[in-house]
Fold this protein.
Amino acid sequence: MLEPSTSAAIDPNSVRKVVAVKAPQDVAWRVFTERMGAWWPLATYKIGKANAVDAVVEPRVGGRWYERGDDGSTCDWGRVLAWDPHSRLVLSWDISADWQPDPILNTEIEVRFIAEGKDRTRVELEHRRLDRFGARRDEMRRIFDTEGDWGRLLESFARLAAAT
Amino acid sequence: MATYAERALDALGDPTRRLIFKRLRAGARSVGQLAHGMDVTRPAVSQHLKVLKQARLVVDRPQGARRLYAVDTRAIAALRQWLDGFWDQTLVAFKQAAEREAAERKA
């Protein structure tokens, strides 16, 4: 479902993803920003101690990006660095390599919504400044990037391991 | 350089450690409780726990005179993230939600 990146050179400090979405640009933008809690895989990708029930992006530059737990607690993921409705969003990702909040980490996620006709949107995501993970940059880059067949192979191993 | 996830998978490559890990998923246990009903000695269980702890799959805490071992849920999350590819999985979930929304508007 995801297209391979078009750029041949691999930037060690950045991960790029492109996804073609059969939805108008404004719908894609709204689902991404206003309804993140409805699609973000909160069961696995959450940071706080409580069970996460929502993911929220405050709709303004300087706004918080956070998860909300079932006990009402919140846990910051980052900040809104750019807010250009329907076309471009930049968030900081302030989660350490140990998956703990780190307000000064400041890696960046840029998401571009490019209309391709009235019912199609090309969504480009770049997670950059991974050098801020320091010695654990390469490890984190592998986590954020796809693992392809290698990942699937290990997944079946993990399933086998769980069933043993 | 092995990642935490790779170390975790290596540690789970041993069937006895997988069994110990599986038992801990049901709740925290002491070495004695873990060894009970297993075909291994308590020192052997301790040794396996040490490997699981080094792989960051298991955490321990003192409780009275003994130690209780439990699964480190952060390790499980890291393992899943590594297996799935963080942004691929997240963007596929987004794509599905946006397309569902677009289809509902059309209907």
